[in-house]
Write a structure and sequence with these properties.
Radius of gyration of chain B: 25 Å
Shape of chain A: globular
Structural class of chain B: mainly alpha
CATH superfamily of chain B: MetI-like
Order of helices and strands of chain A: HHHEHHEHHHHHHHHHEEHH
CATH class of chain B: Mainly Alpha
Distance between the termini of chain B: 45 Å
Number of domains of chain A: 3
Largest sheet of chain A: 2 strands, antiparallel
Helix content of chain A: 55-70%
CATH topology of the largest domain in chain A: MetI-like fold
Helix content of chain B: over 70%
Largest interface: A-B, 110 and 108 residues
Strand content of chain A: under 5%
Strand content of chain B: under 5%
Largest sheet of chain B: none
Shape of chain B: globular
Number of helices of chain B: 13
CATH architecture of the largest domain in chain A: Orthogonal Bundle
Structural class of chain A: mainly alpha
Oligomer: heterodimer
Number of strands of chain B: 0
Distance between the termini of chain A: 35 Å
CATH topology of chain B: MetI-like fold
Order of helices and strands of chain B: HHHHHHHHHHHHH
CATH class of the largest domain in chain A: Mainly Alpha
Number of domains of chain B: 1
Strand order of the largest sheet of chain A: 1-2
Number of helices of chain A: 16
């Protein structure tokens, strides 16, 4: 018997179960690399380079200690002559016949990522909201062309504009500075911010502001007091997308910064131990770097589609 | 009546507000995006070297363009880029659409699983490149271990071998970006109204016919849109591949944008590399335009 009222989204129990099973298998497989790198962060250096790879291992914070410190190897006699270690991490380093020489650059690079990320996010969302409102509500000559122009700036390969920006920044003193990177990421984010926020603002009924303006608000006042609060969800989603982009960006960071304003992505690959790459420290650094983005993804899940397609597809 | 009241409202006119709101964005885009682009285009007609600022800049006309297009190397890089794009887009289209079709069957935990599957594409491509070098490590890599667990190939080196390295980057890109196609296809599937299937049931169309005549045509525009986005991104691909293989071994995975970076930031041939960038930009813009036209035609049908 064929059940006529049945639509394909309400398929039979068996095919639904099979679909669920395949999806679960895919999810598990696709999460293996991420899980593995997080686990590696909790391995000792020796255990990170054993074969076959160890799934069960004695957890160690060596990776995290190595991530945040620089160390020098010392002779047995030198180590014995030292006073006993005061902290657990000193003890851990000494047990590898080394002493801590100082902090590593990781903390500074992570802080740069935060400063530049937050700065660029704030600016792009603020400017984007203004422009989006104007595009959403007012008659603007060549509106569609301007909107497309804003979008098309996203298509340029970053390397194509990196050399001119490099020269320009050096001339006006913005090279390798936080401000320079904040401005740059703001510009890259603006196209996304304007397009997304326009979509969100289109959904807010005009009647709200019109009513407010009849009550004596100016247009500006109505925008800040009525429209912006209505658009909170959209603004938050847009902000997280801008933050993720700035947080993950690599090409500009590696080409335009060196010492002062370098962010974490160009730094993480350079974490090197004594015999090549220190995988447990890289695992630790990667974990600390990925966690904020993973949290953001869960927060964003309802708006993901809109964000990744610049609002071209809405649910 | 309403208009009159609005007209009397205090403060700046709407037109003034509009321009105040738009100008900062436009100015920033002009200064940081358009000016550098114009600069790059004008440099592409010179012999400028950014590391020799004192040197006189000479106008060389189309010489850079002729030189680049006449070189074997750029065609080789274009081929590498094209085959990278072909395989990643093909795999992501098939797997992404497949996953979307499965996820469209409502089952428990559907939303949680979708979120988990989406995770890889939110990560930093450069950092992803770094940790895949660990997974691909010929001595201790988990990837090699798992492959050998299922079929014993003996030791192999995904990154060090010039036949395997192109696949190494295809695998990582597919792992990372399949969720992108999946999400967009899923949106397409969910936009199909139920009455279409109901009508088909009445017409006694079987499952396969429903899939071919209803599901596929409805989801196709969404799939094409996803591939357009991915195509543009992968044509510009730089970060993940630089960290994973840095274009090697030899030039086996040296995509066009990686070669561009070498010319611009290692050899500092600014004039030459600007011409290269213009060529790449025109290529992607041209292909993109044709693609969009074809896409719109399919949509209209």
């Amino acid at each position: 018997m064929v059940d006529i009222s049945r639509s394909p989204t309400e398929s039979s129990g068996f095919s639904r179960k099979l679909a669920a099973l395949i999806i679960i298998v895919y999810a598990v497989v696709t999460l293996i690399p991420i899980t593995w790198i997080i686990l590696t962060g909790f391995k000792s250096v020796t255990s990170s380079i054993t074969y076959p790879p160890e799934v069960f291992f004695e957890p160690s914070l060596e990776g995290y200690v190595n991530l945040f410190t620089t160390r020098t190897r010392q002779s047995q006699e030198y180590l014995e002559a030292l006073p006993p270690p005061e902290t657990w991490y000193e003890e851990l380093v000494r047990s590898r016949e080394m002493v801590i020489a100082g902090p590593s650059k990781f903390f500074g690079r992570y802080a740069n990522s935060l400063i530049i990320g937050f700065g660029a996010t704030f600016l792009s969302v603020f400017l984007g909201a203004l422009a989006a409102y104007a595009f959403s509500r007012f008659k603007i000559p060549l509106k569609d062309d301007l909107m497309f122009f804003i979008l098309s700036t996203r298509m340029f390969p970053p390397i194509a504009v990196a050399v001119p920006i490099f020269i320009m920044y050096r001339k006006i003193g913005l090279g390798d500075t936080h401000l320079g990177m904040i401005i740059l990421y703001t510009v890259v984010n603006l196209s996304l911010a304007v397009w997304l926020l326009k979509g969100f603002m289109d959904e807010i009924p005009r009647e709200y502001e019109e009513a407010a303006m009849i009550d004596g608000y100016t247009r500006m006042g109505a925008f800040f007091k009525i429209v912006l609060p209505q658009a909170t969800t959209g603004i938050a989603a847009t902000a997280i997308f801008c933050m993720i982009f700035s947080w993950n960006e690599y090409a500009f960071a590696v080409l335009l910064t060196q010492f002062n304003a370098q962010t974490a992505p160009p730094f993480i690959p350079t974490i090197i131990g004594e015999g090549g790459q220190d995988w447990s420290a890289i695992g630790a650094g990667t974990t600390l770097f990925l966690i904020p983005v993973m949290i953001f993804t869960v927060v964003l899940r309802k708006h993901l589609l809109r964000g990744i397609t610049f609002g071209a597809v809405r649910k | 009546m309403k208009k009159k009241i609005l007209h009397k409202a205090k403060g700046l006119s709407d037109r003034a507000v509009a321009w105040i709101f738009i100008t900062p964005t436009l100015l920033l885009l002009l200064a940081i995006n358009i000016y550098p682009l114009i600069y790059a285009v004008s440099m592409s007609f010179t012999n400028f070297y950014a590391n020799k600022l004192g040197k006189e800049i000479k106008w060389v006309g189309l010489k850079n363009y002729v030189k680049i297009l006449g070189k074997e190397a750029i065609w080789e890089r274009m081929q590498i880029t094209a085959s990278f794009m072909f395989w990643t887009l093909l795999l992501q289209a098939i797997i992404g659409l497949g996953l979307a079709l499965l996820l469209n069957k409502k089952f428990k935990g559907n939303e949680l699983l979708t979120t988990l599957i989406v995770l890889p594409m939110m990560l930093s491509p450069a950092v992803v490149g770094v940790f895949w070098t660990y997974l691909y490590n010929p001595q201790v890599g988990l990837f090699n271990y798992i492959v050998n667990f299922f079929y014993d190939f003996g030791p192999f080196d995904m990154i060090g071998s010039s036949t395997l390295a192109p696949w190494a980057i295809v695998i990582v890109d597919t792992w990372m970006w399949t969720p992108f196609t999946m999400l967009i296809c899923l949106a397409g599937l969910r936009s199909i109204p139920n009455y279409l299937y109901e009508a088909a049931e009445v017409d006694r169309a079987n499952r396969l016919q429903q899939f071919i005549y209803i599901t596929l045509p409805s989801v196709l525009p969404f799939l094409l849109l996803a591939l357009l986005f991915r195509g543009i991104e992968n044509f510009k691909m730089f970060d993940m591949v630089v960290e994973l293989t840095s274009g090697g071994p030899g030039s086996a995975t040296e995509l066009a944008s990686i070669q561009l970076k070498r010319e611009a930031f290692e050899k500092w041939k600014t004039g030459y590399s600007s011409a290269y960038a213009v060529i790449l930009f025109v290529t992607i813009f041209g292909f993109g335009n044709v693609y969009v036209k074809v896409m719109n035609k399919i949509k209209d049908r």
